[in-house]
Amino acid sequence: MLICDGLELRQDDFELRADLQFVVGKVTGLIGPSGAGKSTFLSAIAGFFVPVSGRVLWDDMELTRLSPSDRPVSMLFQDNNLFPHLTVAQNVGLGLRPSLRLSSTEAGRVEDVLESVGLAGFGGRKPAALSGGQQSRAALARVLLADRPVVLLDEPFAALGPRLKDEMLDLVKTTLADQGRTVIMVTHDPNDAKRIADDVAIVADGTVSMPVATNVLFDDPPPALVAYLG
Ligand SMILES: Nc1ncnc2c1ncn2[C@@H]1O[C@H](COP(=O)(O)OP(=O)(O)OP(=O)(O)O)[C@@H](O)[C@H]1O
Fold first, then answer.
1. Could you name the domain of life of the organism this protein comes from (predicted)?
2. Where in the chain are the domains?
3. Cα of 153 from ligand 1 centre, angstroms
């Protein structure tokens, strides 16, 4: 279980409270108005944003004071997930070894994971020589290889067209989620949540709500979701 225990985030006059749990192996969508704090909340779980109080726990392990690299967490951002000067294989290999000194077995694992996301044969290219969809696949391959149990997605597919975005969401479901990872995904599009999220948590009015089953939430949306959906 990923637990946010009395977590309080503050940034100038912005405040957000989070007291909730994420069930292991589920995909949870985070929905809420622009500026409500979705990205800041993910950053706090990943360790890039320091809370004023409260704790983040992964089962019995307290993460609150650990640096991002020591947390059992991978994060994908909207942009800049790949280093432009490294090849696709090197970018993906970083998920295994930051030094990039890979054994031949490890290099084989990079090839395998590239194949699993439909990028067989693309390992030698630089990211600039990939389409947007292929870049998203490469970034996802690195997360797959990094093998951390919690994966945070901050709208990494927002710039893709609807068909490609759906393909990537399905790939998240068939790779990360089906491997039992705990996925938290920010989205502005309720259809993304309906497509792959088991649960949805609403971020609004200074609070992250407890996740609720996606179909239950959209069948009978609370006032904060009605206000957001318009
Ligand atoms: N570097 C910063 N310094 C000060 N305030 C910031 C900074 N970054 C974000 N904020 C503020 O923190 C609040 C939460 O921002 P955040 O980006 O987490 O919201 P969000 O829900 O992810 O928004 P969006 O849906 O537009 O991406 C906003 O009020 C924003 O203006």
1. Bacteria
2. 73-147
3. 16
